[in-house]
Amino acid sequence: MWFKNLVLYRLTQWTETADTLSRQLARQPLLPCGGGEVQRHGWLPPQNEDYVHSLSPHLWITLGTDRKLLPASVIAQQAQIRSEEFEQQRGYKPGRKQIKDIKDGVVDELLPRAFSVQRRTHAWINPEHNWMIIDSSSSARAEELLEVLRKGDVTFGATPLRTRLSPLHAMTDWLIHDSPPHGFTIDRDCEWRARQDERMKVRYAHHTLNSQEMRQHVQSGKDVTRLALTWAEKISFVLDDTLQLRRIAPLDILTEREATEDNGFDADFALMTIELTALIEDLIDALDGLDER
């Protein structure tokens, strides 16, 4: 199993071992939502029974989220019925506060009967490089995992990983000069965003990215915010302006290796950590190194 999206953090403090971390997480396992709860977080074993899967020096942890499904359209529909009943009984329409009370009552009534879904968010901790890498396309969901980890009395420090050269400026330069950094090639997807109006965007998908056409976007006041790249002919991904890596896909050279070797969990984990570590190191070098201020 490979991470599909990477939100990168630099560890400023980390003293936990696999055993001590596992004991901490075991105190807060994921349990189903109670009758009146919308959402609950807790930890799940990534594999087998341990709450930390260790492949020294790498650690894998998994945050579980149990969430009740209660669509807004269902709440609105039931609240409308109750509001009409209110008007028929009292002869006047409910006011703003009464409508809010009606909606709250609908939620309280429906929640215990709502279906729930479970979501998993994985994190890979690399103490050797002082990295924590969360598999999520949402920075808010990544921060959610860190917050649950802090509440579990795990002592650590983590800040978003930053480089001296911003991805936005680097990607724009690579694209308009058709000069990707060593070891990388530019693929056929990108997104431009206007500097003066972030709502104004131009997206290219499966499109030949002509450098002359790309320069016209710079001249009209746009920057590259997402760029599809391939690293070492092994892994394709999309880099965005916040230094998140999205749509990670190992290419044939790696998938063929997986098919001919032991494809157990540890083998997949080892291959992923080796290749993604090298990719991230090369990407940091391409962006002029870490900004540790």
Q: Nutshell version of this structure?
A:
This protein is of the alpha+beta class and 293 residues long.
What is the count of helical runs?
A: 8
Mean pLDDT: 91
Query: What pattern of helices and strands is seen along the backbone?
Result: EHEEEHHEEHEHEEHEEEHH
Count of discrete domains: 3
Radius of gyration in whole Å, from Cα?
24 Å
Question: Could you estimate the helical fraction of the residues in percent?
Answer: 25-40%
Distance between the termini: 34 Å
In the predicted model, the low-confidence regions spanning at least 5 consecutive residues are none
Q: Care to describe what's here?
A:
A hairpin with a 3-residue loop joins strand 10 and strand 11 (235-240). The strands form two sheets. Strands 1, 2, 3, 4, 5, 6 and 7 form a seven-stranded antiparallel beta sheet that branches. Strands 9-8-10-11-12 form a five-stranded antiparallel beta sheet. It has three domains: 7-68 and 115-160, no CATH class; 72-112, no CATH class; 167-286, no CATH class. The two termini are 34 Å apart. The protein contains eight helices and twelve strands. The mean pLDDT is 91. Helix 2 crosses helix 3. It has helices at residues 18-26, 72-90, 96-110, 139-151, 167-176, 211-219, 252-260, 265-286, and strands at 7-14, 39-44, 53-55, 58-68, 116-126, 131-135, 156-160, 184-194, 201-204, 222-231, 235-240, 245-250. It is globular, with a radius of gyration of 24 Å. With 293 residues, the chain is α+β, with helices and mostly antiparallel strands.
Per-chain topology:
Layout: E1 7-14, H1 18-26, E2 39-44, E3 53-55, E4 58-68, H2 72-90, H3 96-110, E5 116-126, E6 131-135, H4 139-151, E7 156-160, H5 167-176, E8 184-194, E9 201-204, H6 211-219, E10 222-231, E11 235-240, E12 245-250, H7 252-260, H8 265-286
Antiparallel strand pairs: 1-6, 1-7, 2-4, 3-4, 4-5, 5-6, 8-9, 8-10, 10-11, 11-12
